[in-house]
Amino acid sequence: MRQALAIRLLAMDVDGVLTDGVLYLGRSGEELKAFHVHDGLGLALARGAGLQVAFVTGRSSEAVRRRAGELGVEHLLEGVRHKGEALRDLARRLELPREAVAFVGDDLNDLPAFAACGLPIAVADAPARVRAAAAWVTQARGGRGAVREVVEGILAVQGRLDDAVARYLAGERCQ
């Protein structure tokens, strides 16, 4: 996957990518989400290797803010109605060309972000239309290690995976 060579920003949707897409709503309005630890470690590898990470989500959630904080995610864009515009704006602020941006999505509202990036990635359980628009479809489902698969794939293409793992194991972790 040649496009992975240029990636410096890994952006992703949250619900359906970092979670399995199921929303648990408590009686008093709290929202619960399950995040896979493999994805969290993958994001630590990404950050340790120098990739910037962004969550771009249409919802606003304390659970997402907490997880982003735990993982040291640099860019949290919540309540986003137009993900393509938000991703273009973020790339502009970071002075990154479109080719340096990857986006992982799972549904129709992620298609504009696919058009705004150099490497559009769909999780395995995304609808057919979304998978067809992606340059890469993961083997793993959303919330089940898809993000870890993406991180390892990008770093492997860039020749930086072994070094990132060695740094992580040596204790140079980002959480």
Write up this protein.
This protein has 175 residues and is of the alpha/beta class. It has a single domain, classed as HAD superfamily/HAD-like (Rossmann fold). It contains seven helices and eight strands; from the N terminus they run βββαβαβαβαβαβαα. The strands form two sheets. A six-stranded parallel beta sheet has the order 5-4-1-6-7-8, sandwiched between helices. Strands 2-3 form a two-stranded antiparallel sheet. A hairpin with a 5-residue loop joins strand 2 and strand 3. The radius of gyration is 15 Å and the shape is globular. It starts with 8 loop residues before the first strand and ends in a 6-residue tail after the last helix.
**How many strands appear in the DSSP assignment?**
8
Q: Quote the average pLDDT.
A: 94
Count of discrete structural domains? 1
State which percent range the strand residues make up: 15-25%
How are the secondary structure elements laid out?
Layout: E1 9-12, E2 24-25, E3 31-32, H1 37-48, E4 52-56, H2 62-71, E5 75-77, H3 83-93, E6 101-105, H4 111-115, E7 119-122, H5 128-133, E8 136-137, H6 146-157, H7 161-169
Parallel strand pairs: 1-4, 1-6, 4-5, 6-7, 7-8
Antiparallel strand pairs: 2-3
Helix pairs in contact: 1-6, 1-7
